TrEMBL record:
It comes from Prevotella jejuni. It comes from the Bacteria. This is Acyl dehydratase.
Amino acid sequence: MAKLTVNNYEELAARLGEKLGESEWLLVDQERINLFADATLDHQWIHVDTERAAVESQYKSTIAHGYLTLSLLPHMWQEIIEVNNLKMMVNYGMDKMRFGRPVLVNSRIRLVASLDSIENLRGICKAGIKFQIEIEGERKPALEGIATFLYYFE
């Protein structure tokens, strides 16, 4: 699916209820997991101790932090859409967010997004993006919810 380009509120609003796109598949390897553990100071063994996880974990491998999966959303979102004529964009909130499946090390994930809601708040575009972060080869998503962004168009 080609990257969507939006230049103003009206162009985005015209997509209400539509699938906006899907990102490329992204590998979640042990290096990425370890770097996230270092950045967040969350070194729980299920994420970083490959030997222990192979023996003691029900998954028989390490898994990505749920918040690592969530933190990859902005990168994958930028692969789906290019929003032009902006002063700035602000992450406003997350609603109905649920972790459905763990992301095992060396899995590939992608974002699938649709426009769930949109409002013009005195010149500020408030967009609710329904998202699923899928795991390649899995039926159930790793994460789903609604991300709300504020777009300040020029």
